[in-house]
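Severity: low
Component: inverse-folding endpoint
Summary: output formatting inconsistent between runs
Steps to reproduce: submit the following structure tokens with default settings.
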């Protein structure tokens, strides 16, 4: 066997974890939530790609139509970002599924350990729905401490239950430490999801959007991030991604097996 075959055998077991993060148009804290998740996974020694397909994001680069990797921006040694508004529908098939986007992202960024897909509830169902129907996938929702954010979060849960049969979720409430409504928002959302939809709110915690980005995430947030990894959709890299890793100009990852794989 030649050396390339040996390398190929090593990388056939490399796994990327995809985590759905639900965009909430009434809560202007999506960037904070994504940034904190990237920091948490950085503490685990993992590299993260953020795919922002929310309505507030920029459309992907024109070059991404030819090579998806051209639309990825490197923010740091551990974080990459891809503006992706409208990108899922470019991968829709005759059944309304956008599941091929997951394959395309794995091929485009094989060095990433975690891919956060920030999109509306309906687009997340199109992306993950058919593949993850029998899995333990658990989306992350976020809200502010206002009625509008609570309403949009509940609407997302309704879409998940009715269209994808996802019956559990985690919640982040973006509010200052002085907020008197944050705990009530989490309580009411969990109660309504349970009483009217039969869905379970597994974990809810508060995140102060004003905290410094240089601070390490709290132990509670680190635990939330670790739980999302355990319930993420996992995908093993195939030959296409391997060919990208060993192509001229590509940088092989610093480790063969990511932490927590």
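Observed output (run 2 of 3):
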């Amino acid at each position: 066997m030649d050396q390339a075959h040996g390398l190929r055998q090593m990388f056939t077991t490399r796994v990327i974890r995809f985590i759905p993060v639900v965009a909430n148009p009434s809560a202007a804290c999506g960037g904070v939530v994504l940034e904190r998740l990237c920091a948490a996974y950085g503490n685990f020694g993992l590299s993260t790609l953020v795919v922002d397909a929310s309505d507030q994001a920029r459309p992907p680069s024109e070059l991404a139509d030819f090579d998806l990797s051209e639309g990825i921006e490197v923010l740091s040694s551990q974080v990459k970002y891809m503006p992706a508004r409208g990108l899922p529908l470019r991968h829709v098939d005759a059944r309304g599924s956008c599941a091929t986007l997951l394959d395309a992202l794995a091929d485009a960024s094989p060095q990433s350990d975690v891919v956060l897909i920030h999109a509306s509830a309906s687009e997340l169902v199109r992306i993950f729905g058919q593949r993850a129907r029998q899995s333990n996938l658990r989306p992350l929702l976020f809200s502010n401490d206002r009625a509008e954010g609570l309403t949009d979060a509940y609407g997302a849960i309704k879409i998940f239950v009715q269209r994808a049969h996802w019956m559990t979720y985690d919640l982040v409430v973006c509010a200052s430490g002085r907020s008197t409504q944050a705990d009530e928002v989490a309580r009411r959302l969990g109660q309504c999801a349970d009483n009217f939809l039969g869905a379970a709110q597994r974990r809810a915690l508060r995140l102060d959007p004003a905290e410094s980005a240089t601070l390490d995430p709290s132990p509670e947030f680190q635990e939330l991030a670790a739980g999302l990894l355990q319930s993420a959709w996992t995908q093993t890299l195939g030959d296409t991604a391997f060919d990208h890793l060993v192509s001229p100009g590509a940088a092989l990852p610093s480790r063969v097996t990511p932490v927590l794989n």
